[in-house]
Fold this protein.
Amino acid sequence: MPIHHMLYRCPRCGHDPLDSHRGRAKCSSCGTQFEQGRGAVIIIRPPDGPPEQSTASNLLADVERLGGPALGAQLGERSLFREARIAFGRAEGHGVIRWRGEVLGFSERISWKGRGTVRLEGEGLTFEPDQGTGRGGSRQGGLDQSFSCPLGDIRGVQISSRALQITLDGGRLYQFEFLDDSPNRWEDLVCLALTRLYARTGQCITEFKPRIILESVR
Amino acid sequence: MLYRVLRRTMRSYFRARMKIYCEGEENIPNEGPFFLVLGHQSHLDSLLLHTFCPRFMFTLTKSSVFRTRFMAWLAPRVGAVPTRRFQIDPQAVRVALRLVERGEGVGIFPEGERSWDGSLQPLRRGTIKLLLKAGVPVIPCGMVGTYRVLPRWGHMNWFKVGLGREPVIIRYGEPIQFGRHDDRASRERARPEATIRIEVALQAVMAQ
């Protein structure tokens, strides 16, 4: 996974997002570059001054200190807003994995529905397809062409490779593969939105994966 | 046959690129069931486990790995068992329990995903309940150095991986016995303590 998926905000100046260039992440605001060094070290190249070395944990702490996924995406104290270009998919059925005649398990089949924009706004997550990219939507009641769900319907959030997976009631799985944004940021962002949502009802989330587990805050 | 050929090939590949050291192999029983719990820091973890573990291992693997026809054919032959991580997967639990009943070793990554910074993440409670239900020895395993070779945020290139000849230590800890917890209430009661014990054991084997 590219380095700018982990460092979705500049750990130096807080600028959001970082640009990607030949395996490096570059901040268009302060000009600092971040690249992988030997032994999982991250080399920081400021525009003026010698290169420095840091670790992922230190830089992630800096990203968190500068606001994590929320800063700059906030409309108000309670509301988060962000949108990104994605390829949208939905699990439709599964393949059966067998070994020596016995069923070992299942692998979900992702059916890609086309590209568009996913938007987190208020207490909902929506997907709007680009014009003409939805496939088969009209034959299936328009479900393929757009998607919308209140955050309260989300039962699980996690990253799988470069995509964010959202599970709704009944184990329905939706997959958002980001074309120009970080799935890590979106996982953090959706988790933050869910945490805020449930905090308003006096609950806290103790586990996001594989399903959201709530506990009352007393 | 295929497993043996692949294992030999991968051994040569890894030995040419990294300095591999194995510690605590005596903790892996020659026969009988066990669960191996691993801290997950890199794509290399499961490959190294299958290549260097003294016993044939099954590992619970994310189901998306099996999406292509080739991988759906190959992965089960090298011990991968699909797990749908986006939900509680009863089939994966059934298969894991069936395998240990047969006396096999099953590897699990209780964090459920790779760490971004090499640190141990919270363990998933469903995994801990599975370990408690099975009641077989739980062996902690740490792959020290895989994060340095190929972190989650690193670029995967099979030709360049490990060219720096970084040392990697595959360390097996002493087995932990939890006893068998047949009913749900008993598992729920035992879970917090079991989680702490596994976390402590994983921290110990993952220490540099």
Notes: The beta strands of chain B are 19-23, 34-38, 57-62, 80-83, 105-108, 138-144, 167-172.
